Amino acid sequence: MVRKLIAWYRKNKRDLPWRKTRDPYRIMVSEFMLVQTTVATVVKRYELFLKEFPTIQTLAEAPLWKVKKAWTGLGYNSRAVNLHRAAQEIVRQGNFPANPEDLKTLPGFGPYLANAVSSIAFEAPAPVLDTNVRRVILRLLNTEDPGTLDAMLVESRALPSEFNQAMMELGALICRAREPRCHACPVRAFCATEGVHPVEQKPAASQKLELFIRVHQDKTGRVLLERRGPGEKFLKNTWGLPATVIDRCPPGNGLKTLTHAIMRWRIHAHVDHAQSDGLKTTDANKKWVPEKQLGRYLFSSLWWKALTGSILLALAGCASPKVKDQPATQKLAVEIPVPEEPAPAAAKPKETMTVVAAGDVLLASMSPEPPSLPPHDGRGLYDEVKPYLKGDIIFANLESAVTDNCSTEKCRKSANKKGKTANISPKGCYQFATPARYAKTMIEAGFNVVSINNNHSLDCGGQGYLDMVTTLNNIGLRYAGKKNEIAEFYVAGASAAVIAFGFTGGREFPSVLNIPEAVLSVANLKARFPIVIVSFHGGAEGLDAMRLPQGMEIFENTKRGDLRAFAHALVDAGAALVIGHGPHVPRAMELYKNRLIAYSLGNFQTYGKMNLADQRAYAPMLSVELHVRDGSFRGGRIVSFIQKEPGIPLFDPQVRAAKLIKELGRKDIANNLLEIAPDGGLKALEEPKKYIPPVKRVPIGATAKSKNNDFRMTLSARFQHYNRSPEHPRDRYDVMVQSPKSAGFRPDGTKAYVNSLEGFTTVAYDPVALKQLGTIRHCFDEKNAGLISSQKPFDYAFIVKPKSGDVDHFCGKPVEMAFSHEGRFLWVSYYRRDYDEFSQNPSAVAVIDTQTDAIVTVLPSGPIPKFITPSPDGRWMAFVHWGDNTVGFVDIRGADPSKFRLSHLVAVEKRLNLSDLETETNGEKIDRDSECGLCLRGAAFTKDSRHLLIGRLKGGGVAVIDVAKRRYIGTVWGMRPTPRHLVLHPDGKWLYTSSNVSGYISKLNVQEIIGNASGSHEVKPAAEVFAGSGARTIDLSPNGRWVFAAVNTDSKLVALNAENLTKVAEVPADSFPVGLAVSPDNAQVWVTSQGRELHGGNSVSVYRIETE
Fold first, then answer.
1. Is the pLDDT of residue 1063 over 90?
2. Which residue segments constitute the domains of the chain, with CATH numbers given?
3. Is the whole-model pTM more than 0.85?
4. I need a surface site. Which of 215, 307, 386, 391 has the fewest CB within 10 A?
5. Set 31, 61, 485, 1024: catalytic member
6. CB-based burial, 978-999: b 16+ in 10 Å, e otherwise
7. Does 31 participate in catalysis according to the annotation?
8. 836 secondary structure, DSSP code
9. SS3 content of the chain, % helix, strand, coil (to 5)
């Protein structure tokens, strides 16, 4: 029955936003909202609430009035209060409770909420019994015994999240209170009552209530509010308008009337308006509030209905209704302010998160025979370890299945190729099965998360794995295993995710063998969590495996990962810490880009089943401090333990594990910046430097072609600033190539332009003769001040000024470019004005006449206009502001640049307040390349110019702006994370996006993007492909046949088939390619290679394109 139910649920479940996440905070919010409130009402307000409070920290730190205001329209405001208090308690504790009993100790959590949140977010085996489910089991099984539900969940072995939601969905959609849809019921064959049970409770009838509401307003426009007492029939202990219960007012009294429902009350209200003098009184339960501040006090739509149309209306009708509690015409005027509810005192935020990690743990095992079972259910195993297991995240690799019913005969029989079985010796075969009762030993010791993605997790088959998950959920021990099993932590001031990779287990498990997919997984998590911790199980095994090899490791004919490449790629994708295990011996540690990688922590506690005669007995424990903002390494320690037979970790005063890891690091890691002190202390050898990959130079003539020889790319020429004496005549030294950023062709193909970022210059070239035509300098002082437009920079203010005092005396770093007026004008955006270190000021955009290659005007912009794009109809130029989540629109009608006018701003979600920008955090200067809100980047107008599509590099998704209505519609997700560059196909039907960190190129339907921006907020790519790590600028050939991508980290130019995004060819490029442009005749692709920290490309490469 349960199988049929869940199959129906998977096919027919409603598409609800809270079903797309396992984030316990978001699930908690949805469940609080859904209590006694319809799904339709919650859907409208759920996303809005999360935009206001995106994390549990922001909710906990918000003042209560803001929470209540965001809750308006949902009713039952006590739920908002309890949600707020629960969030504060969770943040105070530092962890989100995973089991229902712990959740019940939080404000507002009863059995229903505790079971719902724990089962959906953590797969806790806790059945949910709400009105719908109670009705289902009553009709289906002819019983009111809630224990029946527990039995169904346990015996079916279904995932608790699916079971509970399927039961609730069945009650909501099929087994309804009225008019049940029995004909569509997936479990009708099991139903005992055919849809109706005689003892079903009927909904309580609503009660009518007549109410008189008076809106008092003084001469300044303030409105009188009254604190409602604990004895009121509804909205107790909250602020509202003065209201009294009355006998029915006679019809035709002239008063405004309204109806409203709260709980069991059906209210018929009469609303009057009164002018008051604002005299003082001693009544502290009344307060005059300015109209603009009413949102801080009124949280019921009843009061807002009453206010609508009442303020400033003349007094009319029903002047003296019969009031049960007081006269209706009492003159009320007070001026006794009631203090606002104070925001909770914020604790001093933590600067670091402590992560403690150990290697392989084998608590006990029934197999291989003889069993190895510690006495007293394992109590005492960790006596010497407990004092060191102190931190926010305490991790180990659980190297065993955990089950009491291991039926797999892994070490007795093995199937040969013909399907026959043959006995094999248990010698050399390892099957670990830990009895469930031992698992609690880890919780008692202090561990709070384990990896269950290793080559022994499935030793007892799929059922053994489910048994293990059930056991871990029951004892409250988090785990990282399958792709959907991510361990999440919420520590005061920060949040973190733990994901585990292995080399066995099949497609359900994250794998060290699929680096592109691993990169994508980490990038997705990084978009939600500032700290992502990676665990991996891989590498060869045994005493000979202590040294870290280069390339793929193969052990017992099984690939076990290229662990260097894997770890580095995941740090590049955003991992803060990488913890390795698998070889059963310690390996080196490395500090890579100021992120710690421990390639193996060896065995930690392996009772009775491991050889402990040598270094395999070394049991290091790693303790690391990570910065809560970005996960960077802030120090740590290796605590050395050593296992004594039969496998109990004891403190090692000789610190042998730390000494071994230090020696292995010296041998295996070149230029390792990690220092290991004699006592095991860890620190960086020097201040961390930004990692600069090795510089690549590509020879002229380098070429690549398609498999069928219908496409070829050849490096035919280059302009570079790193070799004064090149060997090839078309390899030309050019001092103006200084960290080139973007490139573009005039539409007629007669000129190519390159923005030289660090040179404050745009360089013009002849693409046919391959020679420089001239330069355009972007510096301004009193001599050329006339070029600067006098227009006000939208509504921005200049927060910082140069030494000269004139904000228009500056040099601009040219970033991106765009053409308008059929190529007559070239627009060049400036990253910032050079004196504005933190990009707090308006920046600017230059307009260049391409006939003379001279600047004709400079328009102010918002902060960091990293991208600019014109509308196809010639009406608008859009400035996409990286610095504050806005887009500026400039009216460019007409051919006179002096008449181009800044028009308006549109914010994507919430605009950042630059005056509140903190330029330092914990003594460190901020980086505006990352402190940028949503980091808006690439953009494209639709072919009809009605919509602007914008990539959100941070947080993901493509935002949609309605150009005519001048408003942000919404965002769609579905493409890979970190969308950077957008380009529209010539037919206008397809949008192509490059995703920087994940390295993917995606093809998306434009109409689906626009249609879903205000609907499901999802779009499925028509095609996508992994182009390479660091996919930056993309461009289409004019005929729409090819997509070209500059791949930064992998230093290459990639060509793709635009129809299906299959890879056609790729050719190496000078280091750090970032920008590119395709010539109008599709004969050339120019690629800019940007410098980094005085290293890198500093070149513009010209590739010849030949097609058939």
1. yes
2. 2-190 (1.10.340.30), 207-307 (3.90.79.10), 354-408+426-684 (3.60.21.10), 778-909 (2.130.10.10)
3. no
4. 386
5. 31
6. bbbbbbbbeeeebbbbbbbbbb
7. yes
8. -
9. 20, 35, 45
